[in-house]
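URGENT: need a sanity check before tomorrow's submission.

F., can you look over the Reverse transcriptase record below? I want to be sure the sequence and structure line up before it goes out.
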Amino acid sequence: MYDRRSIDEFRRVKVVLIDLLRQQNDFWKQRAKDFWLKEGGVNTKFFHNSVKQRRRINTMKRLKRSDGTWVSDRSQLKMMVEEYFRDLFRSEGVVARHEDLAGLVQVSSADNDWLLRLVTMGEVKKAVFAMHPDKAPGPDSLNPSFFQHYWDIVGCDVFHYCKNIFETGHLPNGVNVTNLVLIPKKENPENMGDWRP
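Structure tokens as predicted:
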């Protein structure tokens, strides 16, 4: 009924078809992304609804405790999330042995002096301009683009702020704050293992 040549041809066509379908899928994903980037800033009902739907999907409404009971109170949810990450990154009984550090290269006196010297205006400016302009804003709600664009006005203040941190070794409260967004791994997540940062 089928000869070897027909089967080989079928397999070859199947591979080509799968590749074309993948390309088509990639094309439409890219088109959707381009459309969102181009039109997403437009204040339309469609985009408002898209954002609301995404927010609804990504909102943690309740979690199941280890005893099987559900928690939906926001303050209790917050405590459960904090406890989960505190336990996740807790280390107990870890002792650093001297042998573990034996093979490490030590910092020379000259390198140490260089590392301990004061930061310069040029270094701070170089660091600010090395950032992608559209990276996420900091706690002040300003992204790198603002500081790059207005460097002539704000550069001196930014430099003195950074210099003070290097001199005192103290980060002001809120400077290193990170907003963590948890995204559900599956529909109807039940516990913290069903969410990813």
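My own read: The longest helix spans residues 4-39. The two ends are 55 Å apart (CA to CA). If you see anything odd, call me.
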